[in-house]
Amino acid sequence: MKTPEFNIQVISENNMNHIKLPLKTNTVKLKKELDKIVLRGWHTQKPFSTSGVPGLTTTTYHEGGWKIISLRSIGGDSDRTDPGGPSLVDYEYTNYLDVAPYMKSILNQFGSYVRTARLSVLNPGEKINRHCDTYIAFKYGQVRLHIPIITNDKVEVNISGESQNWGEGELWYGDFSKNHSVINNGNTPRIHLIFDVCLSSQLLSIFPEEFISKIDHRDFLIHKKGISLHNINLKKYECSFILSAGVIKGIFEFDDGIPGEYLGRISVSNNKLVFYINNSPISTLVPVSDSEFRFMGWSMERLILIELGGEKVTSLSFKIVSGRYFTSVKVPVL
Predict the structure, then answer these.
(1) CA distances from 293 to 124, 192, 256, 333 (A)
(2) Phi-psi region of 304 (alpha: psi -120 to 50; beta: other; left: phi over 0)
(3) Is 18-219 a CATH 2.60.120.280 domain?
(4) What angle do helix axes 101-108 and 27-37 make, rounded to 10 degrees?
(5) For residues 86 and 298, is the Cβ–Cβ distance under 8 A?
(6) Calpha distance 67→189 (Å, rounded)
(7) Residues with Cβ < 8 Å from 28, sequence gap 6 or more?
(8) For the segment 202-221, what is each residue's pLDDT rounded down to a tens digit?
(9) Torsion angle, CA of 232/234/235/239, rounded to 10 degrees?
(10) What is the 8-class DSSP label of residue 232?
(11) What is the DSSP string of 252-293?
(12) Where are the domains of the chain?
């Protein structure tokens, strides 16, 4: 991936909750493309949901005033508004970008490390209630970046009790894994280009050294792209196993210690390995080595480790990662 062409010397804000990054954008071009895109209308923001995962809960943090247009989503689905998650297909650009080559050029600077990209509008008087965006942080291998396209001086982004007003055309990082909220007390809409980027050395290079030095390097979960296993018989990875309800919650949310067991399975479909729960396909598995697989749609924070003995699976573990810390859960192979 080509390193984004940023002037790293231009830094005006520097703290651990919000930081302005050095990116020059053409706000005139952004607004002209925005005018074309919004003619097709906005969608009410809805969170990510996987219907095949037992007990998975989703929460909406607004009263209907938060609207989204997806520029990059799972499968390139222009109707999706969520930030993505484990899936059978990868992220692709939506057809909204057909009329927005400049926005696409900005996203292209980050290459395939970009997960979702969305336009987000918050109209005057609307707010996004306080919440945390789970798994959006350096230690989870992905960060969320914002470019305000239209805003006003009465928009407040509050992260961990600290409020900032972000200017048009600026690139901002916020630690959205912390409690945060947004309110538009102005008379004009607040429209941002928001995109999630998996962590790479190139991405880290645009952050100022004084910021990076405050984070233990062991807490940077660097993303790994998938490798090819075309010369390996994928059938030997096929297996069935027992998943406790607590493990499922740990994989997709948090382990609440809930009782219950479910059948898990890994099978080959269309020359790819697919992870199933109770015969529902949940996610394609992306190999990062011949024994380590991440869930398509996620970074390296959730992994499946597979040990082979000859032509069959002898051991299977789920690895839940948070920076330098991880939990490994071995499950019974049937």
Answers:
(1) 45, 34, 25, 17
(2) beta
(3) no
(4) 120
(5) yes
(6) 11
(7) none
(8) 899 999 998 999 999 999 99
(9) 130
(10) S
(11) HS-------EEEEEEEEETTEEEEEETTEEEEEEEESSSSEE
(12) 18-219, 234-331
* Exposed / middle / buried, residue 329 (Cβ in 10 Å: 0-12, 13-18, 19+): middle
Burial 4-18 (b: 16+ CB within 10 A, else e): bebeeeeeeeeeebb
Beta bridge partners of 322: 325
240 closest CA partner among 309, 329, 175, 332: 332
Strands 302-309 and 190-198: unpaired
Hey, what are 334's tokens? 């049937």
Cα 90 → chain centroid: 12
Q: Structure tokens of 45?
A: 């923001």
Q: Beta 162-164 vs 43-44: how paired, if at all?
A: unpaired
- pLDDT tens-digit map of 34-73: 999 999 888 876 665 666 565 555 555 545 567 899 999 9
How far apart, in whole angstroms, are the C-alpha atoms of residue 134 and residue 130? 13
Name the residue with tokens 């019974």.
332
- Residue 157 corresponds to which tokens in the numbers above? 């982004």
